[in-house]
């Protein structure tokens, strides 16, 4: 199964596909942070709540994270 993860960073919309069986809102934001290359520190130092992680992402300019199951097969 795959998910499409979308986010905005530096006024640029990023759309990417992630091959996982399940994806939580927290994991989607964490993935966007890691993929963007904008984070400092290890993931274990990140806020434990979804709301806290979204706020931390917003502070470094990563916004509008959304995700959904991808329909169809990867080409």
What does this protein look like?
With 75 residues, this protein is α+β, with helices and mostly antiparallel strands. It has helices at residues 25-36, 50-59, and strands at residues 2-9, 12-19, 62-69. It has one domain (2-69). It contains 2 helices and 3 strands, in the order ββααβ. The protein has a 3-stranded antiparallel sheet with strand order 2-1-3. It is globular, with a radius of gyration of 12 Å. The mean pLDDT is 90.
Short note summarizing the structure:
With 75 residues, the protein is α+β, with helices and mostly antiparallel strands. The protein has helices spanning 25-36, 50-59, and strands spanning 2-9, 12-19, 62-69. The chain has one domain.
What do the pLDDT scores average to? 90
Extract low-pLDDT stretches: none
- Please give the radius of gyration in angstroms: 12 Å
H/E order of the elements?
EEHHE
Task: Classify the helix fraction into a percent range.
Answer: 25-40%
- Total beta-strand segments: 3
Biggest sheet strand order reads 2-1-3
* Proportion of beta-strand residues: 25-35%
Number of folding domains? Answer: 1
Kindly report the oligomeric state of this protein: single chain
Number of helices: 2
The 3D shape can be described as globular
Q: Structural class, from helix and strand content?
A: alpha+beta
> How would a crystallographer describe the biggest sheet?
3 strands, antiparallel
End-to-end separation in angstroms reads 13 Å
Provide key terms for this protein.
2 helices; 75 residues
Set down the secondary structure blueprint.
Layout: E1 2-9, E2 12-19, H1 25-36, H2 50-59, E3 62-69
Antiparallel strand pairs: 1-2, 1-3
Helix pairs in contact: 1-2
